[in-house]
Amino acid sequence: MTDTVKATASDIKEMKIRGAGRIARAGASAMGKFAEDYNGGSLEDFKKDIDKAKKIILDSRPTAVSLWNGVQASVKDVGSAASLGEAKASVVRNAASFVKMSSSAVETIAKIGAKRVEKGDTLLTHCNSSAALGIIKEAHLQGKDIKVYATESRPWRQGLLTVKELSDAGVDVTLIIDSAVRAVMKDIDKVFVGADTVTSNGALINKVGTSQLALAANEARVPFSVCTETYKFSPMTIFGDMVEIEERDCGEVVKADEISKGVKIYNPVFDTTPAKYIDAYITELGVISPGSVYDVMVKQLGNDIFK
């Protein structure tokens, strides 16, 4: 197995590469590099080895459908390849195409979403979403004089990355602890969050704490929008597959000597926000309702999904 595959999987698992879009692009790039550097002797060997590489990458972040879709997009033509050279070339080509499409999608989402931001708005965001931050920065570039609250997003504190990025862009930004969400909601005009996975019924799987933003926004009548590329839509959920919520080591939350022996720690990475609390999905295809997610999935994947 190439060093690139193992290193990429390790960086994703250890949170050195963060954000659903970033890990999807990293996974696709690793598959492309694997194919480019492959020195095996036959097509059958390549198919077996690329399946092993695929598993290593996917096991690094089981919840992220973006990673699954990025890897699948890269290897989609291997099965029909007539030669080793054709198979390798298809993975290299498809991986590069996915990375380009993914980056372009974020730029498109920024332009579409910025139209929903009005002059003088105070916004709230959570964790560190490229798509959500793209909208905020684009609105700022348009001179809309916005203010932003960003959650700390424990235990990994991705919010520190968010406030640095926004501050560097000249945005008026305030960092808050996660439990202060309801306290500041009275001052918020709109909430923008990213997505890790979107299910066929329009529910959102995202960084733990997202659901509390949605509940507080719903109570305060504040629009709650999810900013996401459509490759984060999970086709597996059409057939009843459940999204696995990843749990991480308790050492991320507390040190062993900080709690009594026998105390359990629950450290989920993500939570679920029901569709009824989501006002809109802002995608590269436009603004859609949660109820339209299924139709978008079927349209993009075609009738082959049901075969």
Your description of this structure?
With 307 residues, this protein is α/β, with parallel strands linked by helices. It has two domains: 105 residues, translation initiation factor eif-2b, domain 1 (Four Helix Bundle (Hemerythrin (Met), subunit A)), CATH 1.20.120; 192 residues, Rossmann fold, CATH 3.40.50.10470. The protein is built from ten helices and ten strands. It has a seven-stranded mixed beta sheet with strand order 3-2-1-4-7-9-10. The longest helix is centred in the N-terminal third of the chain and has 31 residues. It is globular, with a radius of gyration of 20 Å. The model has no long low-confidence stretch (mean pLDDT 93).
Task: Round the Cα radius of gyration to an integer and report it.
Answer: 20 Å
- What is the end-to-end distance? 33 Å
**How many E strands?**
10
For the record, the count of structural domains works out to 2
Overall geometry: globular
Order of helices and strands: HHHHHEHEHEHEEEHEEEEH
Major sheet attributes: 7 strands, mixed
For the record, the CATH architecture of the largest domain stands as: 3-Layer(aba) Sandwich
SSE topology:
Blueprint: H1 3-13, H2 20-37, H3 43-58, H4 65-75, H5 84-114, E1 122-125, H6 130-141, E2 147-151, H7 159-168, E3 172-176, H8 181-184, E4 190-193, E5 197-198, E6 204-207, H9 210-220, E7 224-227, E8 270-273, E9 280-283, E10 286-288, H10 293-301
Parallel strand pairs: 1-2, 1-4, 2-3, 4-7, 7-9
Antiparallel strand pairs: 5-6, 6-8, 9-10
Pfam family, one: IF-2B
Organism: Candidatus Methanoplasma termitum
Binding site for substrate: 18-21, 61, 206-207, 232
